[in-house]
Amino acid sequence: MITLFLAASFLIALLLGFVMIPNILLVSYRKRLFDLPDPRKVHSCPVPRLGGISFLPAIVIAFAVVTGFRYLMGFPVENLPLTRTLYEFLFWVVGAMLLYLIGVQDDLIGVGYRRKFLVQILAALLLVFCGDWIHSLGGLFGIYDLPAWLGIPLTIFLIVYITNAINLIDGIDGLASGLCCISLAMLAWMHIRVGQYVYAFLALATLGILIPFWIYNVFGNAQKGHKLFMGDAGSLTLGYILSFLVIHLSFVRLDADAHTNPSLVIALTTLIVPLFDVVRVVIHRLRTGKSPFLPDKNHFHHKLLRTGMRVRWVMVTILAVALFFIVLNLLLLPHCGVTLILGIDVGLWVAFHLYLDVLIYRRQKAEVRP
Q1: Within a 13 Å sphere around the CA of 38, how many CA atoms are in the beta-carbon half?
Q2: From CA 298, how far away is CA 278, in angstroms rounded?
Q3: DSSP assignment of 28-91, as one string?
Q4: How far apart (Å, rounded) are the C-alpha atoms in residues 324 and 117?
Q5: CA-CA distance, 102 to 6, in Å (whole number)?
Q6: CA–CA gap between residue 83 and residue 131 (Å, rounded)
Q7: What values do phi and psi take at 110, rounded to 5?
Q8: Which pLDDT tens digit goes with each residue over 18-72?
Q9: Which residues fall within 8 angstroms of residue 188, CB to CB, at 6 or more apart?
Q10: Which residue in 28, 61, 64, 23 sits closest to 46, CA to CA?
Q11: Which end of the chain has less Cβ packing within 10 Å, N or C?
C-alpha cells in the first residue's frame, strides 16, 4: 500500500501540472506577462515567467490528498510524533506561502533583494520554532552534536543559502528544475529508507509538478507560445522545500551508529552544484570589488556557454556533474570521513573550473587571432 501512496503523491502533482501549466501560458500571453530579454539572459524573445505559480498549489493538493486518505484508511504515523509532525507541516505551509507570495510579486512587478531576504529569514524562523534545526554535523570538521545557540543560526543560514542557491542557478532552460529533480528523487529515497513516508510524499509531489514544467521549459517553443520559465515564485518555493527536507534529515539517522550521522552530508551532496556555485560566484564578485547581491554572468552555466557549448548541452553537462558528485560521495562515504569527502569535492570543483578557464582563454585567444 505504501508504494501506491508514494506513486499517488507523484502522479496527482504530475497531472495537476499538465492541467495548470497550459492555463498559465494562456493567461500570460493574454495579459502580456513576459520575461523580456536583456544582455544577461540567454533567451532572445519574450517568455512567460509564471510557471512557478503552479508549484505550491499542486504540491499542497497532492500532499494533502494522499496524506489525508492514508490516515483515514488507518495507517499509523511511522516513527513520528503525531503532534509535532502536525505543527511542523503547518509552520512549513506558512513559510512556503510567504515565499511563494513574495516570489509572485517579484515575477509581476519586481521586489528588492532586502525584502526577499527578510521573508526568507522569517520563513526559516518558522521551521526553527517547531524544532527543525540542525542538531549534528555528522563529524564534519570533527563536530558531532551541536548546541541550540549554534545549531539554530546555522539552520537559518542554511535555509537562506539553499533557497538563494536554487534561485541563482535558474539561468538556462531546464537547469534549476533538473537539479531539483535529481535532489528530490534522492531525498525521497532517503526518507523512504528510514520509513518516514510523509516527507517522501512531499518530495515526490514536488518532483511530480516539476516534470511537466521541465518538459515545457526545455522543449516548449517560445514562438508558438508553449514555453515558460519558473520565476522566483517557483525557485523560492523549491529552495524552501529542499531546505526543509535536508534539515529534517540532519537529525534522522541512516545507520545504527549513534555517534555518526551521514544523512546531512548525503542530503547536501544532492545540492552540491548550486551550493558550490553560489560560493564561487560570491568570492569572484568580492575579489573584483562588486556587490555579492548584484547579478553578473559568472555562474557555472555562463562559463560553460563561454567555452562555445550550446545551451542544451550546458544543461546536460551540469546535471551530469551533479550526478557524478552524488555517486562519488555515496561510494566514498563508507571509506572516508565526511571532512575528507568535502575536501575531495572542493578540490574537484576547483580543478574543473580551472580547466574551464583554460578552455575559455583558448577560445578567446583563437577568436582574436587574425
Answers
A1: 8
A2: 10
A3: HHHHT-EE---TT-S--S-EE--GGGGHHHHHHHHHHHHHHHHHHTT---TTS-HHHHHHHHHH
A4: 32
A5: 30
A6: 12
A7: 90, 140
A8: 999 999 999 988 888 776 665 555 555 678 888 999 999 999 999 999 988 887 8
A9: 6, 200, 203, 204, 207
A10: 28
A11: C
Asked if 155 contacts 126 with a C-beta cutoff of 8 angstroms, the reply is no
Pick 264 or 340 by higher pLDDT: 340
- Over residues 97-106, the pLDDT tens digits come to 999 999 999 9
- Cα distance between residue 285 and residue 15, in whole Å: 42
Tell me the residue length of the chain.
370
Q: Residue 28 carries which side chain, given as an amino acid letter?
A: S
Q: Which residue has the cell 535529481?
A: 182
Q: Which helix (H) or strand (E) holds 35?
A: strand 34-35
Cβ-Cβ contacts under 8 Å for 148 (sequence gap 6 or more)? 133
In terms of C-beta distances under 8 Å and separation of at least 24 residues, what long-range contacts does 30-35 make, across chains too? 33/108, 35/229, 35/231
Q: How far is CA 158 from CA 153, 254, 303, 356, 360, in A?
A: 9, 21, 26, 28, 32
Q: Which of 328, 329, 284 is nearest to 302 (CA)?
A: 284
Return the higher-pLDDT residue of 367 and 150: 150
Does residue 129 carry a pLDDT above 60?
A: yes
